[in-house]
Amino acid sequence: MKRSISSADLAMKMMAFRPASPDVAAVNKLVEFARGYLAGHGVFTRVERLKGRKVLWAATGPGRVQPLVFNAHLDVVPQDEASARIGVRGGWLYGRGSGDCLGNAAVLCNLLIACRGNARVGALFSTDEEIGGHTTALMLERGYAGSFIVVLDAGGLKPHLVIAQKGILTLRLSARGRSGHGSAPWKCDNALDRLIDGYLKIRTLFPPVRDGDTWHTTCAATQCDAGTHVYNRIPDRADMVLNIRWTDADTPGDIIRRIKAVSGLAVERIELSPMVGTDPDAAAIRMLRLHMARALRRPVSLIRMNGATDARHFAKLRVPVVATSIPYEGAHASIERASLSGMARYERILTDFARIFAPSGRAGQ
Known about the structure:
- By secondary structure, this protein is of the alpha+beta class.
- The chain is built from nine helices and 19 strands.
- The strands form five sheets. The protein has a six-stranded mixed sheet with strand order 1-2-6-3-7-17, sandwiched between helices. A four-stranded antiparallel sheet has the order 4-5-19-18. It has a four-stranded antiparallel sheet with strand order 11-13-9-14.
- The longest helix has 18 residues, at 340-357.
- The chain is elongated, with a radius of gyration of 23 Å.
């Protein structure tokens, strides 16, 4: 049987595939690489498909259900020239995916290898987390599950467990008017003006948020299109996309109603993901938190996350779900980097936890 390589070296091999979410071929090649690596070390693997996109399940034994299930994703956001440069400098692994999320995926691969024969552990390696996580939803529909879910996808340098994350509500705002020449705006009904006026009113519904007090519903304009590619035409239509992150203080229906009422614009719902919250006093979570704190010799914070992970899909299992991560910073940025010592440390900590939480016995069915 082959000898495993370090998680850092494995992560660099994974990063070399450049598996940006839209590049299904590159993502699928990485799935096959990861599958081969794991199977070559005696780990049970299964590949499923969603519209041509491969998804990897791996476990220390056969079956779609294991007591402890980890999750990491094998896709990354598209990279620029700087983030495409993979390298090790000063104790850090640099490059796209070093932290989000191929560094975590590499740690998870070696955890499975180390737990083979002494713990009952599964891992779901999703392949479209950056664009919605539909592959995770598919795997759950096909019966892959666990009694405790640990998502390895929550950036930061300090030890933490994510016990809640905001829901996502994506809306398209639309305004209609009457087009004409830019030299005679009084003869037109500028749809872009209507859109801007409506958006400014919408902004008053979402008070500013500051660092240290971020658990509030937020709204960000992320796209705008007036359907014209010349400078002197007044548009008769204009659209804007809003990315709203909502908390338990609001409901998507109420948010949509308020936006329609204040803006006078047409509103279309594009995407809705649930808010995720788990009981911090659940026995599994308390056990993991205590184990991490003892191993790291420092407190492990319980936090609520503004971003979203595949935890949004696991929530439907109604079991404890938390997120954590190897120490890294700069997700989606050109300076993304992961701590090499942190990768090795978290691999040991999570492997030891798996052996304690789900000791070897009869494999999942």
